[in-house]
Amino acid sequence: MATKVxxxxxxxxxxxxxxxxxxxxxxxxxxGLEKAKQxxxxxxxxxxxVDELSTEDYVACVSLVGAPSAxxxxxxxxxxxxxxxxxxxxFDKPIKALxxxxxxxxxxxxxxxxxxxxxxxxxxxxxxxxxxPTGSMGSMNLSEVKEYKSVxxxxxxxxxxxxxxxxxxxxxxxxxVVRDVSIYAxxxxxxxxxxxxxxxxxxxxxxxxxxxxxxxxxxxLSVPEGPERIEAVASYLKGRVIHSGRVSKxxxxxxxxxxxxxxxxxDLELTFWNEYMTVEVEGxxxxxxxxxxxxxxxxxxxxxxxxxMKEGLHIxxxxxxxxxxxxxxxxxxxxxxxxIEPIIQKEII
Length: 349
Prior knowledge:
CATH class of the largest domain: Alpha Beta
Distance between the termini: 36 Å
Order of helices and strands: EHHEEHEHEEEHEHHHEEEEEEEEHH
CATH topology of the largest domain: CV3147-like fold
Number of domains: 2
Shape: globular
Strand content: 25-35%
Structural class: alpha+beta
CATH architecture of the largest domain: 3-Layer(aba) Sandwich
Strand order of the largest sheet: 13-12-11-10-9-16-14-15
Number of strands: 16
Largest sheet: 8 strands, antiparallel
């Protein structure tokens, strides 16, 4: 793939396709579209493939960390840019490109604004090709590299909650510090973290994941508004629509900077930890993270993330086997997946 100068049309496709690949997490469509508009006020970011950079070139990941449903979230464009500039000072090698942590409505275009503002390209390799709850799940299995020192810079909040800084330490320690900071900042912080070289990215990231999100968004938006959009998505991803019905019960709690809860539709149950983790019909498992489980408005076809779920909504649920997704090596790491089980009280492994 040659360098592609990104457009607002690409961004719209990336937001909608990313929202679906978010699997219930990854931010809200409206936030993604707003972020896209802001990004293009700084210029037109460029998308490059992993093959356009040298194996030894370093790329840093940009992300938002926090609970999407938190009420006091504030992260502005100067804070997003600040995290990259801090990283360029903190890290001892040049940063040659930026990558996003995952696909999601707001996360697929993570880095577009920062890249345009500081003159770096975005690489077509999100850390993960779907959204996931923990920082470690978005770290391309760096949690298994014992000597790896995580460098993370962060900024967010306003007024008395405004915070910015950096942390260096083990991956778990640094990720936990940033997660705690996000709570003090009002629920969310921007982060630039974990620089790695292209050779590592080729082995562990979801190479081609940004393009996949844009292509999926194009398929979704090419169909007129309505339930046919859901069928088009399921067909494109080689998944299936499991069920359609009204939400009878919904519970969401903020716990430790995450959204945790469940959704009931007739005899179907969804659990989520930011993203949907399991779907069961009459107790029979129909999808398990990292399979993609996603909800849509059954009438309009609009993707609905877990944080905007409500009782009485008429939704459709799709499931896509993990084999049909572009995924990070972390999605096959049993140590990381095992951590989901006590949160949702369900078996994952």
